[in-house]
Amino acid sequence: MSNKIGRKGRFFRVLKIGILVVPLFGLAACSGEQVVMPPDAPGVSRSEEYSFGSATQAQDWQATRKVLGQLEGRFGEKSMRILARNLASTADPQTIKTYYSERLVHQAGWAEMPVSTFADKAWAFAFVSPNGKHVLAVEALDASESAGGIVPLNILTNLDEDKGSKR
Fold first, then answer.
1. Rounded Cα gap, residues 44 and 158, in angstroms
2. Which residue spans within the chain are E strands per DSSP?
């Protein structure tokens, strides 16, 4: 008889521990949610075609390649994507940075990561996730390189987005 009582006691002890531990695992699983690409900033638009001439394209690719090289060294070449966008030449780079900072740093705990375009007529910034696995960088040419009121802007990231192109 005492053996049955001992088993029941052990069973209920394990059940109590399970009731306490399972919700903790659930919370841990929720904290590992997949980070998604934030919406484009105001002044940033998508284009079906590249809207710039060959001289602008060469400058754009040079600046993009420099930033991409810095990111690929840390996050891997195969995981990085380049999302081509257009930026209104009247848009302020600091406003674009603040927009992404509010969505990544303030809401999701990301940190700014230093990057450089090594180009005179371009700017860039980047943010890295708290676990160091995800990155979102933005690179664009200065407004002085405007063609028709827009300049090329590239989002370099390893975040998921359905309309990105892998390179």
1. 19
2. 44-45, 81-88, 111-113, 122-128, 135-141, 150-157, 165-166
Question: Where do the domains of the chain lie?
Answer: 44-157
How far, in Å, CA of 93 to CA of 87, rounded? 10
Q: For domain 44-157, give the CATH number.
A: 3.30.310
Q: Which residues touch 153 (CB under 8 Å, ≥6 apart)?
A: 44, 84, 85, 86, 87, 96, 138, 139, 140, 141
- Is 140:117 a contact under the CB 8 Å cutoff? no
Q: What is the torsional sign of CA 97, 160, 119, 47?
A: negative
Q: Compute CA distances 54 → 51, 60, 82, 93, whole Å.
A: 10, 10, 18, 23
- CA distance linking residue 116 with residue 167, whole number of Å: 20
Q: Is the pTM of this model over 0.70?
A: yes
- Report the C-alpha gap between 37 and 49 in whole angstroms: 21
Ramachandran region, residue 59 (left: φ > 0; alpha: ψ -120 to 50; beta: rest): alpha
pLDDT tens for 29-51 read: 334 556 788 999 999 999 888 88
